Amino acid sequence: MIQKNKEYRGLIFDLDGTLVDTVYDLSDSVNLVMKTNNFPELSVEQTRKNIGNGMFKLIQRSVPDEFKNDSIFINQLVEQLIEIYRPRVVNKSVPFKGIKDLLEYCNQNNIPIGVASNKTDNESKLILKTLFPTVTFTSILGHREGNPHKPDPIVVNSILKEMNCSADETLYIGDSYTDFQTAQNGGLDCLLVTYGYEESEVLESIPNTKLIESSQDLRDYLIELLKKNKKVT
User: Fold this and answer.
1) Number of H helices, E strands in the chain
2) What are residue 182's phi and psi, to 5 degrees?
3) Cβ(17)–Cβ(175) below 8 Å
């Protein structure tokens, strides 16, 4: 829940489906893995529905049913996906409209920006630094080997430390039920967008949560919200 009269000092964003539309590069890469292993290829919409909770879940949701419980085999395919996806992460991926303006506004007003992703740490940093070369991110943290994925709050807690912000004064913005859980687990207020990869019905079922329909609306809403901060102009 967003508290309208609250003064938020920092923002933490999800990456895929919130800041950047990455589905086409992910779809191309998943289909190369499927083709290599003689599995049926998936449509872009199927891949869109499969995104979330990291590469293991993406592959597990993409393979035929008889392979979904073979964790050893799925991990092998995840390694293939990582190698295939790495040189393709910004082939077709683009920022959602208005997001660059929003992030630059935060920079201009000294609002710390963090990004928490279930994408690998290296890929997360590469995408953001390539697509937003003029934006300074206080902290970008993707998944690192040995750490749990979101909705575990470990990544959010680490970002808060780097931002020098408390959970109570930071707003989390994402596009999925996993993001809602991440914010809840980390003690952050949460805002969700419906233009990303989660089914709208899932987001609408979450009680007391602000939903934003377009990335331009997100830009406008957050800028107005941040103006309550006495340091923002």
Assistant:
1) 10, 8
2) -60, -45
3) yes
Q: Which residues contact 203 (CB under 8 A, 6 or more apart)?
A: 176, 177, 192, 194, 209, 211
Q: pLDDT (tens digit, 9 = 90+) per residue, 151-168?
A: 999 999 999 999 999 999
What is the C-alpha separation between 175 and 77, in angstroms, rounded?
26
What pLDDT, on the 0 to 100 scale, is given for residue 52? 81
Q: Which of 26-30, 121-125, 226-230 has the lowest mean pLDDT?
A: 226-230
Tell me, what's the pLDDT at 125? Answer: 96
**Separation CA 65–CA 69 (nearest Å):** 8
Of 197, 209, 196, 201, residue with least CA distance to 96: 196
In the numeric block, the tokens 């207020």 are attached to 189
Token readout for 158 is 């680490």
Residue type, 89: V
Residue for token pair 């309208």: 4
Sequence-distant contacts of 100-105: CB under 8 A, at least 24 apart: 100/132, 100/134, 100/135, 101/219, 102/218, 102/219, 102/222, 102/223, 103/19, 103/132, 103/135, 104/134, 104/135, 105/219, 105/223, 105/226
Find the mean pLDDT for residues 97-122: 96
Is the pLDDT score of 231 beyond 70?
no
Mean pLDDT within 58-63: 96
CATH class, 10-22+93-226 region:
alpha beta
